Amino acid sequence: MATVIDVEAPGTRHCETTALAVLLRHEGIELSEPMLFGLGSGLAFIYWDGKNMGFPFLGGRVKPFELTRNLAGRLRLELQVQETTSPHRAWENAVAAIGAGRPLGLQLDSYHLDYFGSKVHFGGHVVAMYGYDDHDAYLVDTDQQGGTVTTSLTSLAAARAARGPMTAKHRSFTLVAPKDVPSPREVVVPAITACADAFLNPPIANLGHRGIEKAGKLVPTWLKRADDPQRDLPQAAMLMERAGTGGALFRNFYRDFLAECTGLLDSGHLRTGHGLYAEAAALWTEVAALVAQAGESADAQSLVKAGAVLGDLSRIEREAMQALSRLAE
Predict the structure, then answer these.
(1) For the purposes of burial, counting CB atoms within 10 Å of the CB of 315, is it exposed (0-12), middle (13-18) or buried (19 or more)?
(2) For position 1, what pLDDT does the model report?
(3) Which residues form the Butirosin biosynthesis protein H N-terminal domain (predicted)?
(4) What three-state secondary structure class fits 16?
(5) Would you give the distance in Å from CA 151 to the centre of its chain?
(6) Which of 6, 49, 170, 241 is the most buried (most CB within 10 A)?
(7) Which parts of the chain have pLDDT scores under 70?
(8) Any residues with CB less than 8 A from the CB of 187 and at least 6 apart, and which?
(9) 270 closest CA partner among 196, 217, 201, 198
């Protein structure tokens, strides 16, 4: 017998904001995906490489679950988080939430999910669970992964129990909204300025605008760095554009968030930031195309061009965040 809560797939593109959209809709809160991303101060940058890594990693958002914590704090939502090392207790936690009529978010490794098209380990994947029966769990994932989907209880257990980079201990969470949820207009300024401050003042050179500048210097070496350039470079480009980023390494989301904010606030600083992020988003898509081209043709010059564009992007995003940091003045 199935136990199911009535939900609908929001038609979104990033896993964590997809789960948040489902949980918030259940609480009567309807926000666009860019607004969820922006209110969660989700934009960031990291360039990471290490001895045990097959290829460098470019990330464009804050670490998994930080966006959820940020959003819950801004909207004064009650965020109830449960973690455990026990698979049995983890399942009981999920069943209890569904039994109480509340969908829940799950952080897990997407590699084990039956419906997932790309079999790559990613321990920071987030889905919304809204029901189950004797064999399957009923989930909501991104539009790209099918929206409302099912996966076997066995596969879900394996995904939740996985350990490795970015995984959590069977993490599940629910959101409860207060009666007086702040309007986006009340909280966009602190959300934007917090994001700008982190981006402009990174603790290490791999992060923020400094990380983009570093990437600009290192990307031209990627043909030599890659074990298999024809595989590694196109995959890196795909991750920037199509792996739940909304395109342009999450810059499309932030551009659209800032555009939505211009309808809430009359600010020259905001309009400047939006214009610069519109420019940055287009350039990130260009970088991805150049990286893919380099992998397909072994053309080092394409990586040189990508490095030069990244140098421009470091400056553009720094100037954008400097303008946005002044919103609180």
Answers:
(1) middle
(2) 66
(3) 14-142
(4) helix
(5) 22
(6) 170
(7) 1
(8) 39, 74, 75
(9) 196
> How far is 293 from 47, CA to CA, in rounded Å?
20
- For the chain, the farthest-separated pair of C-alpha atoms sits apart, in whole angstroms, at 60
Number of residues written out for the chain: 329
Which pLDDT score, from 0 to 100, does residue 51 have?
Answer: 79
Distances in Å between the alpha carbon of 75 and those of 41, 178, 183, 296? 13, 9, 8, 46
DSSP 179-239: TTPPPHHHHHHHHHHHHHHHHHS-SSTTBHHHHHHHHHHHGGGHHHH-SSHHHHHHHHHHH
**What is the reported pTM?**
0.95
Measured between alpha carbons, how far is 316 from 276 in angstroms, rounded to an integer?
6
Distance of CA 286 to the CA centre of its chain: 20
- Give the CA angle between residues 43, 124, 68 to the nearest 5°: 50
- Residue given tokens 């090392």 in the structure block: 85
Structure tokens that stand for 133 in this block: 């029966």
Residue carrying structure tokens 């394409």: 302
pLDDT at 2: 78
Q: Report DSSP state, residue 111.
A: G
